[in-house]
Design brief:
The structure is a homodimer of 211-residue chains.
Chain A (H helix, E strand, L loop, with lengths): L1 H7 L14 H13 L9 E6 L2 H9 L6 H4 L2 E8 L4 H15 L4 H15 L4 H25 L3 E2 L7 H8 L6 E10 L18 H4 E3 L2
Helix pairs in contact in A: 2-7, 5-6
């Protein structure tokens, strides 16, 4: 049950560096991320899987020295498109036509032409912000996927994104890091958060009915 | 299984307006949204549940006339905080102390003081954008929760947010609409998308390993 999975997970503060995630569990997380819905199906992001210890040490150094970045089994970096471009949107249309058949083109192409007319004149920054929001949908779903697999994870925004872009060469590929997700297994001790009660705003403070 | 739920769901284009969501299913979706992790646990958003037909007709009129807004059983409006304020962050600290006990204050307060020193000098717009991203995590998890309940849903960004703010009186409450989520049950016919193959970027185009 989703509710149990959400209650089980927490922002892991201390991973056991000796435990490696089995390939099938990593793949389950990545496949959930792949299935996340995004605006107009653009999926305007990539996920970079970082195992290389030297790269991870560099990222930790620009990530408030958070040890999970190097001690977790794998580090996932969610990187959103820096902008929408004609080529990127055309590639999405091509994917749809490839997967649904040539007959889909007639219905689909005018929609994405209107989308290009709307997105391409906007600033790169505005488009990147929009792309980043889509990455956050996938990020949330990736967190659920990890919990379903009983894999620990730490959602992270606290890092110098420009520096991570540099370390991973993301800008040259039209990407900008938006979140980090170390995944692996919690240590049996040394995690100050593990034993604390999960705090959430009561439902009547979070949800309101319109009159 | 999450993967089956993600395969089952789709952006429903035609709801059956005669079918109402049972209270327990709505509550399961709202409770999953409540459990979504957010940056520093701020949960900087609210969800407005709209059933009133007149309000929904007004929202549909500023939402590209998408019929799901009025034909679904319930309309959820995700509205992010317009800004971070001292009072809002202090209320989060109070919630933590209330739920974890007075002993938690010593560890928690300095963290949130640093957060205030970082967030409060920033522009309202920058803070709202950050809050909106947190709402997207909950939005993604809400979509999973709906699918788990076999409830249909349509994630929507295509609407005039300023107008929705006006219709629901959100600005006066320090909120700005960021996404809509009509939830209910698909119609048995009239949904052009229901029969089409779900298209996602192949995994090797979405996921890359850092060298």
């Amino acid at each position: 049950m989703l509710q149990d999975q959400l209650a089980w997970r927490y922002a892991t503060k201390k991973f056991d560096p000796s435990k490696t995630l089995p390939e099938d569990k990593l793949e389950a997380i990545l496949k959930a991320i792949q299935m996340a819905p995004t605006s107009s199906g653009l999926q305007p992001f990539e996920v970079i899987v970082v195992t290389n210890p030297a790269l991870r040490a560099q990222i930790q150094a620009v990530g408030y020295d958070q040890a999970q970045i190097t001690e977790a089994s794998h580090l996932l970096v969610f990187a959103a498109w820096d902008n929408y471009t004609e080529a990127r949107i055309d590639a999405v249309v091509q994917d749809i036509v490839d997967q649904r058949g040539e007959g889909a083109a007639e219905a689909v192409k005018p929609y994405y032409e209107r989308l290009k007319a709307m997105y391409l004149p906007r600033s790169a920054e505005e488009n990147h912000q929009h792309a980043a929001r889509q990455a956050y949908i996938a990020f949330g779903i990736g967190l659920v996927a990890a919990a379903e697999q009983k894999v620990d994870a730490t959602p992270m925004e606290g890092f110098d994104a420009d520096k991570v872009d540099e370390i991973l060469g993301l800008r040259a590929r039209g990407l900008r890091a938006v979140t980090l997700l170390p995944v692996g297994y919690r240590a049996t001790e040394g995690d100050w958060l593990a034993g604390l009660k999960k705090v959430r705003r009561p439902l009547d403070g979070l949800i309101h009915e319109a009159a």
